[in-house]
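Retro notes (design track)

What went well: tokenization of the new backbones is finally stable.
What didn't: we kept losing track of which sequence belonged to which structure.
Fix going forward: every design gets posted as structure first, then sequence, in one message. First example under the new rule, 245 residues:
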């Protein structure tokens, strides 16, 4: 059994590329971008635009795959006024006891926040990042991979775009455990990217805006739990680096 959904806004582009079926997308000639044992990301240019095709080779049949979560999550976030890469197509194919699937998104506008901040500290970027993070968590969302590399910044538009939504979660109200995990990842990124002086500025700007959306995030107990989570991420990262060296 095969499922295929496409965004009507890209209908003409897909038709000109002869992308009509699950197999058409799966076999699309594209350039390798990143690969892991169970999935790969490939890049393709259609009608002068760049697109990312994320292919999942084997998903357990008894659970929802990341492909479906990312597809549905993107539309939900866009409807609520957040910026994400535009969703183009989604497909699943049941094969015996497993499922393979894919998502296709237009590439994100702008440049990675991580790259911007490595070059120079930008208070305006940090303010808008804090605003997006605050709105995101206040709406009950959790990303679970909330590192700098998953945000893009467009300075002229003053817009922050969130990418890689395969682990997106949503609740009717903010959950502290979810918020702590996301913010720990964000602040761990800040510590890996910024100088000590810029890190202090980052914290001041970030919290001054973020607390307008999640007031309890600056309470002493919350900050203590957050710091503990950041330390655990750092320890885990150090172990991974030690194994690979």
């Amino acid at each position: 059994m095969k499922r295929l959904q496409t965004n009507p806004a890209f209908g003409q582009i897909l038709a000109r590329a002869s992308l009509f079926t699950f197999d058409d997308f799966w076999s699309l000639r594209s350039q390798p971008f990143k690969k892991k044992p169970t999935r790969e990301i490939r890049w393709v240019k259609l009608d002068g635009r760049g697109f990312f095709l994320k292919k999942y080779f084997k998903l357990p049949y008894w659970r929802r795959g990341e492909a479906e979560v990312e597809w549905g999550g993107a539309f939900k976030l866009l409807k609520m006024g957040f910026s994400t890469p535009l969703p183009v197509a989604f497909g699943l194919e049941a094969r015996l006891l497993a499922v393979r699937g894919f998502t296709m998104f237009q590439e994100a506008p702008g440049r990675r926040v991580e790259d911007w901040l490595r070059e120079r500290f930008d208070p305006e970027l940090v303010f808008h990042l804090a605003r997006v993070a605050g709105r995101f968590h206040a709406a009950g969302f959790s990303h679970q991979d909330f590192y700098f590399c998953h945000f893009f910044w467009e300075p002229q538009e003053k817009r922050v775009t969130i990418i890689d939504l395969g682990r997106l979660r949503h609740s009717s109200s903010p959950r502290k455990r979810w918020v702590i995990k996301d913010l720990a990842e964000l602040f761990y990124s800040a510590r890996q990217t910024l100088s000590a002086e810029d890190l202090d500025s980052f914290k001041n700007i970030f919290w001054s805006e973020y607390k307008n959306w999640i007031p309890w995030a600056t309470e002493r107990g919350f900050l203590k739990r957050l710091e503990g989570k950041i330390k655990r991420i750092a320890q885990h990262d150090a172990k991974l680096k030690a194994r690979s060296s």
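Added context from the reviewer: The longest strand covers residues 49-60.
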